[in-house]
Design brief:
Blueprint lengths: L7 E5 L4 H12 L3 E6 L3 H13 L4 E5 L5 H15 L4 E4 L14 H29 L3 E6 L15 H18 L4 E8 L14 H9 L10 H11 L10 E4 L9
Parallel strand pairs: 1-2, 1-4, 2-3, 4-5, 5-6, 6-7
Helix pairs in contact: 1-2, 1-7, 3-4, 4-5
Length: about 250
């Protein structure tokens, strides 16, 4: 069964990691997909090629999510290509690990602008289009287990993920009357570009794996199913929710 048959799905940060997995997962379920990405041209092109190999339409738009105009441009181009916007997956994010006491202002501000401002503007632009269309829609934001727990070298990052989680709760209230559902997924430790260097240390990786009841770290594909579910009509009465996708890590942090 194709859960997103006939839908159009927009994904930010779609060239690698969770965004790429979500984009391809949506295509496998029958959606046409537009991805936004920041810099990885070859990865974006290969993602589009994989989606098209599944028989779906796709395009990639390069742009910085920290800029409000990127969001309006992305949505406008998706409408021009596909005629509508049914789903927004707000995934783009960065986490340059750094200590708290000497956090450079530019690192703090860039993290806020990409993770929080980017999510806000993308979700707002998609919601405006969905309201204009008049037939509802779904927004899924990629938050993090870091919205619920602290991180010594993530004092700039964890507040943004708590903010994304909170944004979906408030947006669910604001947009419910338009039949637009807003939910977040909270990944645990997923092997992506964000933490590749941090987990290169075998001892640290073993330690992190030991905290997960399922006995392994996550892969981007582990998020594709939950995101597709929340985007689909199977979740028609789910809004304002936050779904942990962490192999049980959160409940085992004791």
């Amino acid at each position: 069964m194709k859960l997103l048959d006939g839908k159009t799905v927009l994904v930010t940060g779609g060239s690698t990691g969770i965004g790429r997995a979500a984009a391809i997962g949506a295509a496998r379920h029958g959606a046409d997909v537009a991805i936004n990405y920041h810099s990885r041209d070859e990865d974006a092109e290969s993602c589009v090629a994989e989606i098209e190999s599944l028989g779906q339409r796709a395009f990639a738009l390069k742009g910085d999510v920290a800029l409000p105009e990127t969001a309006t441009d992305f949505v406008a181009k998706a409408v021009a290509a596909f005629g509508k916007v049914d789903v927004m997956v707000s995934n783009a994010g960065i986490c340059p690990f750094h200590a708290f006491l000497d956090m450079p202002v530019e690192v703090f501000e860039r993290t806020q602008k990409v993770n929080m401002h980017g999510a806000y503007f993308m979700c707002q632009a998609a919601a405006r289009q969905m309201v204009a269309q008049g037939h509802g829609g779904a927004i899924v934001a990629v938050s993090s287990i870091s919205a619920l727990v602290g991180g010594e070298f993530q004092t700039h990052y964890t507040p943004t993920k708590a903010g994304v989680h909170s944004l979906m709760q408030s947006a669910a209230i604001a947009l419910g009357k338009h039949n637009i559902r807003c939910n977040s997924v909270l990944p645990g430790t997923i092997l992506t570009e964000i933490n590749k260097d941090d987990l290169a240390d075998p001892e640290k990786r073993r330690s992190m794996e030991g905290r997960v009841p399922l006995g392994r770290l996550g892969a981007p594909d582990d998020l594709a199913g939950p995101i597709v579910f929340l985007a689909s009509d199977m979740a028609a009465y789910v809004t304002g929710a936050a779904l942990l996708v962490d192999g049980g890590m959160y409940v085992n942090l004791q």
